[in-house]
């Protein structure tokens, strides 16, 4: 199959995404505006008949360090993309034109995250793994299901010269989307089914919040500072580096301009005070719990549980097939401060999902090695 890759308009890109049942929120045109340090470009894959058969959002960022006169070299990054036929027998015929296009843009390396699922572990399998003192990492535990096509894709990428990357950080130049996530399947399930699938603690907490009179409302742009105040408190408590308020304001403006329901903000009120808040993202039938925030005050009223259940209820009402709680740790060590987050997400009764991870194609091996050395020092 003869395919060409070229720039397409935002409208063409959005129309392609909209026609699909699901796509990552990092692959919609507006996501490029959320990342101002990167230059965004919409790419289209056209077959021999001129039909658009694939699309992708590529983010271009200059090589860190001193700039040489007349030299602009970029890392080209397609987070959780591109949106192409990953089961195609001619995967090289789809990816090589993209590589050549990005080479012409001055890329010294191409990084992508194929949206290809490798394995799934249901909630019972994850709980058993956490309880097993011999289990160190989720990837070492027998999966509930495995898709052999993912292995075929990985083998094909290695033959082409792609290299699987180590998980990256979220800060600074380091680009990385989670390889392991936790998802709750919604397709074909009633809201009662979904609530019944929650563990006893989750159901008890939701009931507590209802009895305590917690009210969850949808917020707007003007409520982002209240969310951010709780978010920075959460960051300090859970030991992560918070994003600044302008990041969320930029995200809101960009995503809601593209679609009014692309991003939602929920706030839980109790006795006149906001105790918890969260953001929700939607693309097609896929809904993400994106950022959560809460205060340590009045935890007994379970405001965070109220927010989660309201978002799950609204996601179901929107026709979601998947409610995605995003990244989880694959470590099962009791000493990990992230294990509590995994336990929290397992309580939804969903499943842990492993994707194929991120892959690099070095176009300039010297600069690619320099980038990896730079990231290793971060």
TrEMBL record:
Keywords in alphabetical order: Acyltransferase, Cell shape, Cell wall biogenesis/degradation, Peptidoglycan synthesis, Transferase
Top-rank lineage group of the source organism: Bacteria
Pfam families per UniProt: FemAB
GO biological process, one term: cell wall organization
GO molecular function, one term: aminoacyltransferase activity
Family annotation (InterPro entries): Acyl_CoA_acyltransferase (IPR016181), FEMABX (IPR003447), PG_Glycine_Bridge_Synth (IPR050644)
Family affiliation: Belongs to the FemABX family.
PANTHER family from the UniProt entry: LIPID II:GLYCINE GLYCYLTRANSFERASE (PTHR36174:SF1)
The name this protein goes by in its record: Peptidoglycan bridge formation glycyltransferase FemA/FemB family protein
Species name: Streptomyces tuirus
